[in-house]
Write a structure and sequence with these properties.
Radius of gyration: 27 Å
CATH topology of the largest domain: Aldehyde Oxidoreductase, domain 4
Largest sheet: 7 strands, mixed
Number of domains: 3
InterPro entries: Ald_Oxase/Xan_DH_a/b, AldOxase/xan_DH_MoCoBD1, AldOxase/xan_DH_MoCoBD2, AldOxase/xan_DH_Mopterin-bd_sf, N-heterocyclic_Hydroxylase, OxRdtase_Mopterin-bd_su_IorB
Helix content: 25-40%
GO molecular function: oxidoreductase activity
Keywords: Membrane, Transmembrane, Transmembrane helix
Organism: Sulfitobacter brevis
Number of strands: 28
Protein name: Isoquinoline 1-oxidoreductase, beta subunit
């Protein structure tokens, strides 16, 4: 891999401490088990052996530290517990549990470090260990970055094994039999004579003994659930329309609220006239909040209608407000003074271009994108007697707890966040702005449950979108091969914007600007990737697959251009350049699946893209047909390697969903701005892919990697470049700007 020229200061400090043996944190403190937050809330007869498992008279409950936003996180975590506890998966109850530092995410920090997933050097492995140290001591309880499986794979299995061993010990104490004569079977300890003692009946005894910590995890050959197709734990409720989400929360005596704030995100309100709105039927109050107003009514629809009638005097946008000027600011950031990173710089790039007979150059650009989850932002909040309760879907319960406490003027221990199922997120629920609005309302209406729901229009205009970006790429070819590649990417900083809202400092470069560009496993002789930070404009945030979502398009389309300039087959050239065995096998697999190299009829084309993101190599081949000047997407082939496929059914669902998500946004979606206001405020102007346009998606999961990885996001980044490359193959038209619908029509 390339030389690491710049290292984030925080990453360096954390890594240095880890190498030094824990001078600041202390190895003992790091190794020590965190306090089990469940012990303070157990009722008589309930047992909890660690922060993740509770057993009572009703059976086994998984305390899930990671939120479910549709990706199947609850289900996969239940698989891990059920496997080692030896219980029926269908009987495991799920409780999101409280905000607590013990539920830290020890993997998410790796993506913020300048460490290539393919690197196995001492420094790289030390950095990965440092990420776990940092996650624990910072108490980073969050869901994101496809980290649920890699972070919880060992932790939850160990928790389940400890629970099982402790229940065996409880049975031994209760019966007087040696523990080694007892076994377990589907939620019960079985005595030598075949008598079954249900876990639920052992809970009271187990609660009185010390948990058994010395356990051995199952050999994979003995797994009942893991690695085998399973039905998701929420499939019945979702199939029958009985699944409840945050927006479904109800409480006795609640009032309904909605908000209307400056449509230029972060802008102020100079004043408002609510006289007409207050006269509407069912309206109880119109209250001031930061940046706008809140309307309180006796149902949500009446609140929506009244909010639309409040006459507001908005301040101007606190950022560059028009799309053309925003892209001009991005273009201006290609300046040495704005350089943010250069994590890859191999060979002598400048000399290579000076000596080249021909230089291939291209500029690509991608737009702002909305998260647009189906469930709009909502929360139930109750402030009473110095206690604040929040019920909502969120990926950041501890950050939310801290920020809500600050807004309400309370200590964090007096703020209780109850995490509910989310109807989609794609990164949106890594923010807590909507909850802070509800807290402001509750501060003005204490002792009353406030159910706050945003309108769809408010949800669109007050999103924190994926950043826009541009790339300027140069390359040379020689003897039918790619010889040099110089890629520059300019974008606003997601980390700078997002972490500032969470009250966290950010130092060093933002990895998202160049994510999945500098760390791709291609051994190009002269290879350089530079990131440029665009000054802050529209407040931005994480979006499904973060920087990789757009950088796959910027990087892989130009790789395709260089292959064609060299006269090289796009698959064969990528295989020749590939320096990572696991990635090579993914490329080989998708080539075999798609019949790459076989002839296609006139007007048809195949496009290939490969992106290594979140440690997961993913290759896609897309087949398209030119239908009288319009493009039909016929079929998609996807190969991905996550090290071990924990649930083949959910793996296929997440990959297929990622493909459709990526394709829909590449085809049709963008946020454009005028005077600081997004011009797309509902699905009619942001429609993605229609059902009749969805292609057949063929998925293959490989298991050659040595690390367990997540798959919620890696399926997204290759979709846009594979489609653009396929369109070129079918039509000869090279499209370098998203969405593609500006250049072609889709049928």
């Amino acid at each position: 891999m390339g030389r690491i020229k710049t290292i984030a200061r925080r990453s360096f400090l954390i890594g240095s401490v880890a190498i030094a043996g824990g001078v600041a944190f202390g190895i003992y403190a790091y190794k020590r088990e965190g306090k089990n937050p469940l012990l303070d809330t157990l009722a008589p007869g309930e047992a909890s052996f660690n922060p993740y498992v509770k057993v009572d008279a009703n059976g086994v409950t998984l305390i899930t530290p990671r939120a479910d936003v549709g990706q199947g996180a609850y289900s996969i975590q239940a698989h891990l517990i059920a496997e080692e506890m030896d219980v029926d998966l269908a009987t495991v109850r799920i409780d999101p549990g409280p905000p607590s530092a013990v539920y830290y995410n020890g993997v998410v920090g790796i993506e913020a470090m300048p460490i290539a997933a393919t690197s196995e050097t001492f420094l790289a492995n030390t950095g990965r260990g440092a990420a776990d140290v940092a996650g624990k001591f910072l108490g980073l309880q969050l869901t994101g970055g496809s980290t649920t499986v890699p972070d919880m794979f060992d932790r939850l299995r160990h928790a389940g094994a400890v629970a099982r061993a402790t229940l065996i010990a409880a049975a031994a104490e209760q019966t007087g039999l040696p523990a080694d004569q007892l076994r377990t079977d589907m939620g019960a300890v079985v005595l030598p004579d075949g008598v079954r003692l249900e876990y639920a009946d052992l809970a009271a005894t187990a609660a009185e003994i010390e948990p058994v910590q010395e356990v051995t995890l199952k050999d994979p050959s003995d797994w009942k659930y893991l690695g085998k197709p399973q039905q998701r734990t929420d499939i019945l409720a979702k199939s029958t329309g009985t699944q409840t989400y945050g927006i479904d929360m109800v409480m006795d005596g609640m009032v309904y609220a909605t908000t209307r704030t400056n449509p230029a995100q972060g802008g102020a309100i100079r004043g408002f006239d609510a006289s007409t709105a207050k006269e509407r039927r069912g309206v109880k109050a119109v209250l001031p909040i930061t940046g706008g107003v809140a309307v309180i009514a006796d149902n949500t629809w009446r609140a929506f209608q009244a909010a639309a009638e409040v006459k507001c005097d908005w301040d101007d946008a606190p950022y560059i407000g028009d799309s053309d000027k925003q892209f001009a600011a991005v273009a201006a950031a290609f300046d040495p003074a704005r350089q943010d990173s250069r994590f890859r710089d191999e060979g002598d790039v400048d000399a290579a271009f000076e000596a080249a007979a021909e230089v291939i150059e291209a500029e690509y650009r991608i737009p702002y994108l909305a998260h647009a989850p189906l469930e709009p932002m909502s929360a139930m909040v109750l402030l009473a007697e110095g206690r604040l309760d929040i019920w909502t879907g969120t990926q950041i319960p501890r950050f939310m707890q801290a920020n809500a406490a600050k807004r309400a003027g309370l200590e964090a221990e007096n703020v209780h966040v109850h995490v509910l199922m989310s109807g989609g997120s794609f990164g949106r629920r890594l923010e807590d702005d909507y909850v802070l609005q509800a807290v402001e309302i509750a501060m003005q209406l204490p002792d009353v449950p406030i159910k706050m729901v945003w309108s769809r229009e408010e949800d669109f205009t007050h999103d924190f979108p994926r950043p826009l970006a541009m790339s300027r790429a140069r390359g040379t070819v020689s003897d039918g091969k790619i010889a040099a590649y110089d890629l520059a990417v300019a974008a606003p900083s997601t980390a700078e914007s997002q972490m500032a809202r969470l009250g966290q400092p950010v130092m060093g470069p933002d990895m998202a600007i160049v994510q999945s560009t500098w760390d791709q496993p291609f051994a190009i002789p002269d290879y350089r990737v530079t990131g440029y930070r665009v000054p802050a404009m529209v407040p931005v945030s994480s979006w499904r697959s973060v920087g990789a979502s757009g950088n796959g398009f910027l990087h892989e389309c130009f790789i395709d251009e260089l292959c064609l300039a060299a006269g090289a087959d796009p698959l064969e050239e990528r295989l020749r350049l590939c320096s990572h065995d696991v990635s090579r096998k993914v490329l080989e697999a998708v080539g075999e699946m798609s019949g790459w190299g076989s002839e296609m009829a006139q007007g048809r084309g195949r496009g290939l893209a490969f992106v290594l993101a979140f440690g997961v190599p993913v290759a896609q081949v897309i087949e398209v047909t030119d239908v009288e000047g319009a493009i039909r997407i016929d079929k998609v082939f996807v190969a991905a390697d996550v090290g071990r496929v924990i649930d083949p059914v959910n793996f296929e669902a997440q990959v297929s969903g990622g493909v459709i998500f990526g394709l829909g946004h590449a085809m049709n979606c963008e946020l454009t701005y005028k005077n600081g206001v997004p011009q797309q405020d509902n699905y009619h102007a942001y429609e993605g892919m229609r059902l009749y346009q969805c292609p057949e998606v063929v998925v293959r999961g490989l298991e050659n990697g040595t690390e367990i990885r997540g798959i919620g996001e890696p399926g997204v980044p290759p979709s846009a470049p594979a489609l653009a490359n396929a369109i070129f193959a079918a039509t000869g038209s090279r499209i370098r700007t998203l969405p593609l619908s500006h250049s072609v029509r889709f049928v």
